[in-house]
Amino acid sequence: MVTDIIQSAICSLDDAEFTHLAACPVCGGRVQGYDTRTKKYAVIRDGDGERIIKVRIKRFTCKNCKKLCNADEPFYPGTRIGSLVVDLFFCLSATMPESRAARHIGAMGIRVDRTSWKKYSGRAIPEIPVTDIFGMQLPSSVLTLANLSARIPEGGRIDSTDALEACNFPSALTIFPCSTLAAENTGMRKSNDLLPMNVAPGAVRSPPDGAVSPISTLATSKVRF
Fold first, then answer.
1. Which of 68, 101, 202, 208 could form a disulfide with 188 if both were Cys (CB 3.0 to 4.6 A apart)?
2. Using an 8 Å Cβ cutoff, are 92 and 69 in contact?
3. Residue 77: exposed, middle, or buried by beta-carbon count in 10 A (0-12, 13-18, 19+)?
């Protein structure tokens, strides 16, 4: 049952499109559309095969500093795995060894290579709101996205703003080294032209006006690291 809920939450993001960026995250300047890329969010086992969950992310160029930057997206800065899967790993590893947490995620039908877990292991992350689901402390985003998935009409897609609210706007955070952000946009940047750790005042991304995370309405606790 838990596996079904988690996979439903992940699958709710399949083919979702993220197109909003209020300002350049580096200098706060105005941005203009550049292109749209497809990114792999997660890989789950589907029967005897695997299903790749992909999202579409619009990219922008800054009119001021000329940087290439992504729209607000369901990824933590500097990561290539969807934020829900990263949250799941850190929630589980708060109560068990990380190697065991990784095996649990694999048993849930989510495929992540060991190298990725080693990269993220030990990094500072924000507090993760958690909810008790059948005796397991899991990210609240799992339950919220699963509920949103149940309301998506056949052939429809999840609303990107709803998805980001459910995930607590992960790309707005600066928890991972920003130097790793350049890997996916090397075609537009020089190797020494990376995002700085300290962005200009007002340049940090924020939720769209009026957006309130539904996580606050759940009975949750928080995992601290």
1. 68
2. no
3. buried
Q: 70 pairs with which residues across the strands?
A: 59
> 191 exposed, middle or buried (CB, 10 Å; 0-12, 13-18, 19+)?
exposed
Distance CA 69, CA 56 (A): 14
pLDDT at 215: 33
Nearest to 70 by CA among 13, 108, 31: 31
- Cβ pair 88, 105 in contact under 8 A: yes
3-state helix, strand, coil split of the chain in percent (to 5) is 35, 20, 45
Residue that the structure tokens 């997206």 belong to: 73
Calculated CA dihedral for residues 124, 125, 126, 128, nearest 10 degrees = -130
Torsion on CA atoms 198, 202, 203, 209, rounded to nearest 10: 140
Higher pLDDT, 218 or 145: 145
**Could you tell me if 54 and 11 are in contact, meaning their C-beta atoms sit under 8 angstroms apart?**
no
Q: What are phi and psi of 41, to 5 degrees?
A: -90, -45
* Domain spans, the chain: 2-196+214-223
Q: List 43's β-bridge partners, or say none.
A: 52
| pLDDT at residue 216 is higher than 60 | no
Q: What are phi and psi of 212, to 5 degrees?
A: -130, 130
Token couple for 119:
């990269």
Q: Output the six-digit token pair for 40.
A: 């792999």
